[in-house]
Amino acid sequence: MSKLKLSLIPILCFGAILVLTGLTQRHALACEFIEYSNYSEIAPNIFVSSSFNLDQKETLLSTITLGKSRVNTTFGKMISNPKVVITTNESEAADFGSNAYGKALLTPLGQCIVIGHKGQNIDVIAHEYTHAEVHHRVGWLNHFLNVPIWFNEGVALLVDYRNLYLLENIDLSLKDIESVKNNRFDFSLASYQASRVLVDSIDKSSLYGNLEKLKQGQDLNSVFGL
Questions:
Q1: What's the CA gap between 96 and 85, in Å, rounded?
Q2: Cα–Cα distance for residue pair 40/154, rounded to 1 Å
Q3: Exposed, middle or buried by CB within 10 Å (0-12, 13-18, 19+), for 141?
Q4: CB 83 within 8 A of CB 100
Q5: Nearest-angstrom CA–CA distance, 43 and 72
Q6: Buried-most residue among 45, 58, 124, 180 (CB within 10 A)?
Q7: Helices in the chain by DSSP H: which ranges?
Q8: Structure letter (DSSP) for residue 219
Q9: Measured distance between the N- and C-terminal CA atoms of the chain, rounded to whole angstroms
Q10: What is the largest CA-CA distance in the chain?
Q11: Model confidence band, residue 7 (pLDDT cutoffs 50, 70, 90)
Q12: How far apart are CA 137 and CA 156, in angstroms?
C-alpha cells in the first residue's frame, strides 16, 4: 500500500466518526459548537443561557467549583476539561438532549456536560463531572465497549448525595440488584439505586489508577472485582 493511501486512512476514519457523530449525536455537536450560539462563556469552557443575570452567573460558577471540588476530594484531581452548558428551562435542556437535571454527552469528540434548571446544585454537577472524567480517562472506544451503564452511574453516584441515592434509603433485594448488573439498565430509580449498591466496595482513592487498567485492556471484573 502506498504512503499516500496510508496517510489517508486516519483522515477517512476521522471523517467517518464525524459523519456518524453528526447523524447520531447532533446534541453533542450542538455543544461542541456552543461558541457560535447565543450562549455566553462566563469562564473557560462554561457557557450559560443569555437569560441568566450577573448574580446568577456568579452563583453558578461558585456551585460548579464546589461540585468539582467534591470530585477532586473523593477520587483525586480531575484531568478532564469538559464543556459545560447551563440552561434555564426544559426546552433549552432538550435542545442539547438533556432532561431538567443534567446529562453528560460523551462522544469521540470529547465530553460535554449539560445542566438543566433542576440540576444547578453540587450533587448533579459532581455527578456529571464524574461521568466526564471516567470517559476521558478510559477513552471513548473503551468507554463504549467496556464500561457498563450500571458501573458508570454507580461511580457518579458516589459523589451524588441526594437522599434517594444514599445507602440508608435504598431498600432493594439482592435479586433486584443483580438484575441491574446482569440485564439491561432501564434508567429507573431502582436501577440507579442498585448501581449505587453495586459499586459501594470500590476504593475511591484508586479509581483513576484502575480506570487506566481498563484503558490498557483489562476487563472490569478483574480490575474492580465486581
A1: 9
A2: 32
A3: exposed
A4: no
A5: 19
A6: 180
A7: 3-24, 26-32, 54-75, 90-95, 122-138, 140-146, 149-157, 174-182, 189-198, 207-215, 220-224
A8: -
A9: 45
A10: 63
A11: low
A12: 14
Residue with cell 446544585: 121
The grid coordinates listed for 181 are 448488573
pLDDT in tens, 116-164: 999 999 999 999 999 999 999 999 999 988 999 999 999 999 999 999 9
Could you give phi then psi for residue 72, rounded to 5 degrees? Answer: -60, -40
Q: With 0-12 CB in 10 A as exposed, 13-18 as middle and 19+ as buried, what is 80?
A: middle
**The C-alpha cell that represents 164 in the structure block:** 434517594
Closest-CA residue to 150 (of 96, 115, 199, 117)? 199
DSSP state of 168: G
Would you give the DSSP letter of residue 206?
Answer: G
Residue type, 175: K
Sign of CA dihedral 92, 96, 98, 104: negative
Question: 126, 159 in Cβ contact below 8 A?
Answer: yes
Q: Could you tell me what percent of the chain has a pLDDT over 70?
A: 89
- 5: cell is 493511501
Rounded Cα distance, 105 and 103, in Å: 6
pLDDT at 13: 56
* Helix, coil or strand: residue 88: coil
**Per-residue pLDDT tens over the stretch 87-102:** 999 999 999 889 999 9
